[in-house]
Write a structure and sequence with these properties.
There is one protein chain. Helix 2 crosses helix 5 and helix 3 crosses helix 4. With 254 residues, this protein is of the alpha+beta class. A hairpin with a 2-residue loop joins strand 3 and strand 4. The chain is globular and about 50 Å long. Helix content is 35%, strand content 31%. Pfam families: HTH_1, TOBE. InterPro entries: LysR_HTH_N (IPR000847), Mo/tungstate-bd_C_term_dom (IPR008995), ModE (IPR016462), ModE-bd_N (IPR003725), Molybdate_resp_trans_reg (IPR051815), Mop_domain (IPR004606), Transp-assoc_OB_typ1 (IPR005116), WH-like_DNA-bd_sf (IPR036388). One of its GO terms (molecular function) is molybdenum ion binding. Keywords: Molybdenum, Repeat, Transport.
């Protein structure tokens, strides 16, 4: 089975995150791997979540033990991706030497931009419904989950979207809203069942909430401590998360 195109491009464009797989394989712990890679604990979790979301199956298997605890190891797919990364490393020097001018690398850097969106979900276009000047794009995620995106017709045409197109759905953490089991989602909104994986308290401001979907993909959002306390939210709690289709940005391979 070949790697998804978007994950393959990620290996080429974001090597520092793929290199984290090597540290996890060696250290057996996210905390120790982050330290070895020169990353913060939080940055390491973000990297792992992004990699797992883009892959066909999780690359890293974790056992939660609280901040600073728990173990981690590479899945079989993770080991395969790591081997691919190591082969690409061997080719890197040849690629750099092949550049005709230093400006070539700068140009490639501008064309391969990163995104500030914390949540990146790999999926495929399952349907396109015209709604006036907009198109409602239905996206099939892993595990029979689905979400909708609302984009302009011009965007649909520019991205050359058709049923079956592989995409990444980008959603900023601040655009997600948590719902308690008793709250009803707003009509027309995307709504997904999720389990709280971890709460990361901040000295000031809202708490960062890491969520796991039933398909293993993860989401990150924020919630006020008072709301979390009022609903007795803790690691392992079952909640729902909602967001508007217009808040879902769509990315495709270049």
């Amino acid at each position: 089975m070949s790697l998804p195109a978007l994950l393959t491009q990620h290996i080429v464009r974001r090597p520092q995150r793929i290199a984290l797989l090597q540290h996890i394989a060696e250290q057996g712990s996210i905390t120790r791997a982050a330290k070895s890679a020169g990353m913060s604990y939080k940055a390491a979790w973000d990297a792992i979540d992004e990699l797992n979301n883009l892959a066909a199956s999780p690359l890293v298997e974790r056992s939660v033990g609280g901040r600073g605890g728990g173990g981690a190891k590479l899945s079989q797919e993770g080991q395969r991706v790591l081997r691919l990364y190591q082969r690409l490393q061997a080719l890197q020097a040849q690629i750099l030497e092949a550049a005709e001018d230093a400006s070539d690398l700068d140009l490639l850097g501008r064309l391969m931009l990163r995104t500030s969106a914390r949540n990146q979900l790999h999926g495929r276009v399952s349907a396109i419904e015209t709604q006036g000047h907009y198109d409602r794009i239905s996206l099939a995620l892993a595990g029979d989950l689905s979400i909708d995106a609302l984009i302009t017709r011009d965007s649909t045409q520019r991205l050359e979207l058709t049923p079956g197109t592989t995409v990444v759905a980008l959603i900023k953490a601040g655009w997600l809203t948590l719902l308690s089991p008793q709250e009803r989602p707003l009509a027309g909104y995307n709504c997904l069942q999720a389990k709280v994986e971890e709460l990361l308290d901040e000295p000031q401001g809202p708490t960062e909430v890491r969520l796991t979907l039933s398909n293993g993909q993860t989401l990150c959002t924020f919630a006020e401590p008072a709301w979390l306390n009022a609903h007795a939210v803790a690691a392992g709690s079952n909640l729902r998360v909602q967001f508007q289709p217009s808040y879902v940005l769509i990315g495709t391979p270049l």
